[in-house]
Amino acid sequence: MLTFPEEILLLALDDETGKIKSLPKITIDTAICAAALTELTFLRKIDAGPEKLFIADTSKVGDPLLDEVLEVLKADMEKPIVYWISLLAEELTDVEDKVLDSLVKKNVLKLENKKILWVFNQRTYPTVDDAEMVEVKARLKKIIEDKELPDPRDAVLISLVNACHLFGEIFAEDELEQHREQIEKMAKFDFVGQALAESIKDIEQTICLMNEALYQYG
To answer: Please, what CATH class does the domain formed by 4-197 belong to?
Structure first.
């Protein structure tokens, strides 16, 4: 079974180029960190509430990213979930690489090194086959279209995918508008996803202000 960070990254990956789609790095890192917190909740390593986190089990799980998140959480848990999402995204390094390496080890992706201008190496991660990516997309699409009650894991994934604006990878533009209300309704089932949406909104506003400043004074 893929973890939440792995499923989120798969949806953000362009299968044709093997590279992350045009999302700001801080946005995808923030999404992965929120997904990691959720995965630790399902593994019963932490108990996450809207106001604060509690460590339930400090033993390692054998996943580099999840174990690193656990170590950070042990320092101070008396903070709201949105605080931890932002802090982890800022402090953790190589977040994407850890998840990509995990997907390579699970034989979902393969690592390819390509030369740019015959000098610079560029790492890409095409899928070995697209079975996992197709399965994730088909599963979520069916739940939304049929208005099914999602199981707990799918409810979380819907919320995370919605916060990252990745439902455009699952539905065509006209379909997305048709199902927008249902997606928003289901996305409210998970408070971590709601906290992620708040964090990403702040990031987008900051980027917008920076771009306006560059345009004005550039």
So the answer is: mainly alpha
